[in-house]
Amino acid sequence: MHSFPKPALEMVEQLQQAAMAQPERAIAFQGSPGANSHRAANEWAPEALPLPCFSFADAIDAVKDGRAGCAMIPIDNSQAGRVADIHFLLPESGLSIVGEHFLRIRHALMALPGAKGPLKAAYSHPHALAQSRLFLRERGIVPLSFADTAGAAAHVAELADHSLAAIAPVLASDLYDLEIVENNVEDSDDNTTRFVILAPQPLDPKTLTEGTVMTTFIFEVKNIPAALYKAMGGFATNGVNMTKLESYQKGVSFSATTFYADIIGAPGDPAVDRALEELAFHCKELRILGSYRQARPRG
Question: What predicted TM-score, i.e. pTM, was given to this entire model?
């Protein structure tokens, strides 16, 4: 709780008190009020109660402990790629993916009102800094990492140093009494983050009768030649579209690679069942993380 910057604490306490009264309506998110995850939660479920948490692990724990009905977690960004640690946290959480949401990301450079002279440094979340890398380099502004974008704005307000700035959503400037120096400082016009919604129980694929369905799973193939090639063959022969495949190392030996995948379709579909059955034959581990409605067409 006290890891939040002081200017954010009062709002954090108010939001936490509201969520405590109706935890089933609460959506846990990582960051201070005004962060992009806060925006995503409001867009996905405007009637819900946003519950700010300092870290991704804290947001996940809030759902596991019953303090929130679900969590809104960013998983990757169109510019900066995979959000660090998420692929480790998701399998360990015991929660299921029940939805996805895409948020157009627009960043603003903000500083104390009346700031004069060149800005020396800007605080923000590492992903926001990566998304504004060229902007900062061209202006000679040093990037400084912070836990989240809105928290960076609150931190700048707390430091009261006119040479410092933050890169954060415009909403954060209003919440923490900062002044916008420049809008739309992200390097790409189509900067977008994909969020997943995590809940204690998975959705039954049989209930997902409207629209396109996605399924997310992780797997570890046997450590033998061509194991991944053979494991992927079932999706090709059964006509199942795999829209995402990422690898990450598991453990310090670097001998076991875990893969994270998204496919179009869900268990219960004969083609998907055949593909997953063939995948399981070549795997040491296969775990479904959830099936949910597709929020944006792939391809």
Answer: 0.93
Q: Cβ distance 6 to 123 under 8 Å?
A: no
Long-range contacts of 207-211 (CB under 8 A, 24+ apart): 208/266, 208/291, 208/292, 208/293, 210/293, 211/293, 211/294
* SS3 state at 260: strand
Tokens of 3: 């890891």
CA–CA dist 119, 131 (Å, integer): 19
Tens digits of residue pLDDT in 72-92 = 999 998 887 888 677 788 888
Say how many CA atoms lie within 13 Å of 197 toward its Cβ: 27
Beta-bridge partners for 216 = 262, 290
Per the structure block, which two tokens stand in for 8? 């954010």
Catalytically annotated residues? 193, 195
Which phi and psi (to 5°) does residue 23 adopt?
A: -60, -30
Q: What is the pLDDT of residues 134-182, one digit of tens each?
A: 999 999 999 999 999 999 999 999 999 999 999 999 999 999 999 999 9
Look at phi and psi of residue 206 and say left if phi exceeds 0, alpha if psi is from -120 to 50, else beta: alpha
